[in-house]
């Protein structure tokens, strides 16, 4: 008995002594996605080169966002390097929560970044997040199904083209859905996709007075198109399908077309990840004559340093400079295969002969899709905000989620289009009024 | 005919018992089986029951990407630490409530239970800020403390119900023989309620081991236990079921073994005093 009490005492003592952190050790909080996992794997090279020890906190996107928000808002300083998306970068930089990243060495070559990607992470021309990957929207389609149906994908498909093709290639008996689009509600799920369609049709969320425009014609047109095409050619239970579910559906051959993030292109051509690697084709995001420039959204994942980090700031900067450098992109290409090289960040990656060789089917299209978007002016009309696919105000998370939920309700048939537009308009107006943007 | 009925009843109950056991065990079995599948096979529909290739790739990758052993040690320290300190507080508390009740004992017990009625997330922001100010974020003492506080009401309640089963006369007899409170506790009360004490400890170890809300919210790298290790394999992008299953299997194996070895104690403790 006495021995076991002693053993417990030892365990307890062990348990209550926290290991001390060394000065040259940095903590990196990151999302659990393919590119970040490759970075974690290759970072041993950085550790050997610099002697700086890296410790990783890898979390699912939503959990990470909550943790980072709590950490950064309270200046808890638990993480030295954080992975953030464009929305967080713009918002947090304006709050003074992120460190400027404008003093890297000359070799770093800021001008090598694709302008749209860099702009989506900069405030007043100063970069606050170093792009780890950038993305826009692209249309993935099955060449074999198109051939079977006797149709051809045009170089610049319109929304009407896509709806017609989707209907033609739908083959419910064989489990083929003509098109898969995000239906899962969320400001990072269905809302950015719908927002992009609205922009393509010449619409916007707000006018210059911050009055919502959700009952305007472009919103009605975009949602009518979306609901119609999903009803005729979408998968069953589409309101629960987000990016990941659709990726599984498309890569297992259940979708004829899928409009989603460009970053997926490399994975869809990888036979280990995709059963349709041989038959996947790539086309631009569907355009309309209302706004031929609205070619997608502009989103990026980036590495940033909270301003609460002081002691480790130099080491953190060193790491970010390495992980977003040209050399790093080359390292990924050589070690992991060029298909997995960071997508949508550096022009030099797209110019590399090795990348061109393997990514030939999509490289130019992805580069064109990302370059075509102007995140500082995403709409036809003048608007008081920036961001393509999102709006850089703190309220957008709540607005995007609720509007997304309303759209999902229309998709399941629980509510009509008119109800959804009306309710969304009222909700957005009330939220903006409460937030002090204007008095009613 | 009459003798057939009990046999039939017994057979039906046995069948029901097995059915419930299988139902409860199936998710664990499925997790273990998935951990040996390839990522593509793990999401295949219709799903295959047995892995076609029995690959260890997921385990290797999990091992390569995470420091399993560090998380494991944190889990051990957290579970044992919160249990031992918790018992040191809960035993005297339950003793006084069972044998020296005051007028407010019932209210105190109800109040303790009521703290479990509020969802933990309701207290997250103040707890986070307190931890930040006290320098307890991502430290083992901090996370041990919060898990201990969370489980303490259950420990006190369990011990209180076990102690209530012990006749107060026996303790009184000890006292009349000149035993001190300490002796009464160590030599009489604890040996008599050992199954109850053991099952309280085991249950608390299991609860602390599986705790995922506070451990995910208040730790980062230094004090992150196995729950954080599992969470790092959940992903909104790409295929991850097989790796997540491998991480889960690695995380639950130790506690499954403890549960297996101690199941007799656990069952005896949980049914302690049920039949008189």
UniProtKB/TrEMBL annotation, chain A:
<protein>
    <submittedName>
        <fullName>Sorbitol/mannitol transport system substrate-binding protein</fullName>
    </submittedName>
</protein>
<dbReference type="InterPro" id="IPR050490">
    <property type="entry name" value="Bact_solute-bd_prot1"/>
</dbReference>
<feature type="signal peptide">
    <location>
        <begin position="1"/>
        <end position="23"/>
    </location>
</feature>
<dbReference type="Pfam" id="PF01547">
    <property type="entry name" value="SBP_bac_1"/>
</dbReference>
<keyword id="KW-0574">Periplasm</keyword>
<keyword id="KW-0732">Signal</keyword>
<dbReference type="InterPro" id="IPR006059">
    <property type="entry name" value="SBP"/>
</dbReference>
<dbReference type="GO" id="GO:0042597">
    <property type="term" value="C:periplasmic space"/>
</dbReference>
<comment type="similarity">
    <text>Belongs to the bacterial solute-binding protein 1 family.</text>
</comment>
UniProtKB/TrEMBL annotation, chain B:
<feature type="transmembrane region" description="Helical">
    <location>
        <begin position="184"/>
        <end position="207"/>
    </location>
</feature>
<keyword id="KW-1133">Transmembrane helix</keyword>
<dbReference type="GO" id="GO:0055085">
    <property type="term" value="P:transmembrane transport"/>
</dbReference>
<comment type="similarity">
    <text>Belongs to the binding-protein-dependent transport system permease family.</text>
</comment>
<dbReference type="InterPro" id="IPR000515">
    <property type="entry name" value="MetI-like"/>
</dbReference>
<feature type="transmembrane region" description="Helical">
    <location>
        <begin position="76"/>
        <end position="96"/>
    </location>
</feature>
<feature type="transmembrane region" description="Helical">
    <location>
        <begin position="240"/>
        <end position="261"/>
    </location>
</feature>
<keyword id="KW-0812">Transmembrane</keyword>
<keyword id="KW-1003">Cell membrane</keyword>
<dbReference type="InterPro" id="IPR035906">
    <property type="entry name" value="MetI-like_sf"/>
</dbReference>
<dbReference type="Pfam" id="PF00528">
    <property type="entry name" value="BPD_transp_1"/>
</dbReference>
<feature type="transmembrane region" description="Helical">
    <location>
        <begin position="12"/>
        <end position="33"/>
    </location>
</feature>
<feature type="domain" description="ABC transmembrane type-1">
    <location>
        <begin position="72"/>
        <end position="262"/>
    </location>
</feature>
<feature type="transmembrane region" description="Helical">
    <location>
        <begin position="108"/>
        <end position="131"/>
    </location>
</feature>
<keyword id="KW-0472">Membrane</keyword>
<dbReference type="GO" id="GO:0005886">
    <property type="term" value="C:plasma membrane"/>
</dbReference>
<feature type="transmembrane region" description="Helical">
    <location>
        <begin position="143"/>
        <end position="163"/>
    </location>
</feature>
<dbReference type="InterPro" id="IPR050901">
    <property type="entry name" value="BP-dep_ABC_trans_perm"/>
</dbReference>
<keyword id="KW-0813">Transport</keyword>
<protein>
    <submittedName>
        <fullName>Mannitol ABC transporter permease</fullName>
    </submittedName>
</protein>
């Amino acid at each position: 008995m006495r021995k076991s009490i002693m053993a417990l005492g030892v365990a307890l003592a062990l348990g209550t002594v926290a290991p001390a952190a060394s000065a040259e050790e940095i903590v990196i909080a990151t999302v659990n996605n393919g590119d970040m996992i490759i970075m974690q794997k290759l970072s041993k090279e950085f550790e050997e080169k610099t002697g700086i020890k890296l410790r990783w906190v890898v979390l699912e996107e939503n959990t990470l966002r909550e943790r980072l928000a709590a950490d950064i808002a309270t200046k808890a300083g638990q993480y030295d390097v954080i992975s953030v998306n464009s929305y967080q970068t713009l918002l947090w930089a304006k709050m003074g929560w992120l460190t400027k990243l404008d003093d890297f060495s000359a070799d770093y070559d800021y001008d090598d970044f694709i302008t749209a990607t860099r702009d989506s992470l900069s405030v007043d021309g100063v970069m606050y997040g170093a792009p780890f990957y950038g993305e826009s929207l692209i249309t993935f389609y099955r060449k074999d199904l198109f051939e079977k149906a006797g149709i051809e994908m045009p170089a610049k498909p319109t929304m009407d083209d896509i709806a017609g093709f989707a209907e033609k290639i739908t083959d419910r008996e064989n489990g083929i859905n003509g098109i898969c689009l995000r239906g899962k509600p969320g400001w990072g799920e269905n809302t950015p996709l719908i927002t992009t369609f609205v922009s393509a049709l010449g619409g916007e969320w707000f006018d210059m007075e911050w009055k919502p425009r959700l009952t305007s014609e472009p919103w009605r047109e975009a949602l009518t198109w979306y609901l119609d095409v999903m009803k005729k050619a979408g998968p069953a239970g589409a309101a629960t399908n987000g990016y990941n579910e659709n990726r599984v559906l498309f890569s297992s051959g259940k979708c004829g077309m899928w409009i989603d993030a460009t970053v997926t292109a490399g994975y869809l051509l990888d036979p280990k990840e995709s059963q349709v690697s041989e038959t996947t084709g790539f086309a631009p995001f569907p355009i309309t004559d209302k706004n031929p420039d609205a070619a997608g959204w502009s989103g990026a994942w980036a590495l940033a340093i909270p301003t609460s980090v002081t002691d480790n700031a130099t080491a953190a900067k060193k790491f970010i400079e390495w992980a977003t450098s040209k050399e790093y992109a080359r390292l990924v290409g050589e070690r992991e295969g060029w298909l997995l090289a960071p997508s949508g960040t550096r022009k030099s990656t797209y110019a590399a002969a090795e990348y061109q060789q393997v990514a030939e089917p999509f490289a130019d299209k992805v580069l064109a899709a990302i370059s075509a978007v102007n995140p500082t002016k995403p709409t036809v009309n003048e608007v008081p905000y920036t961001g393509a696919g999102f709006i850089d105000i703190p309220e957008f998370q709540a607005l995007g989620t609720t509007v997304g939920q309303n759209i999902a309700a229309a998709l399941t048939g629980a509510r009509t289009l008119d109800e959804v537009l009306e309710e969304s308009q009222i909700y957005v107006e009330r939220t903006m009024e409460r937030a002090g943007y204007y008095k009613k | 005919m009459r003798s057939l009925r009990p046999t039939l009843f017994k057979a039906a109950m046995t069948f029901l018992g097995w059915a419930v056991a299988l139902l409860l065990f199936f998710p664990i079995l499925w997790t273990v089986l998935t951990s040996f599948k390839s990522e593509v096979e793990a999401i295949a529909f219709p799903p295959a029951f047995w892995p076609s290739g029995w690959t260890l790739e997921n385990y290797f990758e999990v091992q390569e990407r995470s420091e399993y052993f560090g998380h494991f040690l944190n889990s051990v320290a957290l579970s044992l630490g919160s249990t031992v300190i918790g018992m040191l507080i809960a035993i005297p508390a339950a003793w006084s409530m069972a044998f020296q009740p005051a007028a407010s004992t019932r209210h105190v017990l109800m109040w303790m239970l009521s703290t479990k009625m509020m969802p933990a997330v309701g207290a997250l922001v103040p707890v986070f800020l307190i931890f930040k100010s006290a320098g307890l974020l991502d430290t083992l003492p901090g996370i041990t403390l919060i898990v201990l506080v969370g489980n303490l009401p259950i420990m006190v309640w369990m011990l209180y119900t076990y102690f209530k089963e012990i006749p107060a006369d026996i303790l009184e007899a000890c006292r009349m023989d000149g035993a001190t409170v300490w002796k009464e506790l160590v030599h009489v009360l604890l040996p008599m309620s050992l199954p109850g004490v053991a099952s309280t400890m085991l249950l608390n170890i299991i609860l602390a081991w599986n705790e995922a809300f506070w451990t995910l919210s208040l730790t980062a790298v230094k004090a992150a236990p196995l729950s954080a290790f599992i969470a790092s394999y959940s992903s909104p992008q790409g295929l991850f079921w097989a790796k997540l299953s491998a991480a889960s299997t690695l995380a639950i194996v130790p506690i499954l073994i403890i549960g297996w070895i101690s199941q007799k104690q656990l069952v005896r403790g949980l049914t302690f005093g049920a039949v008189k």
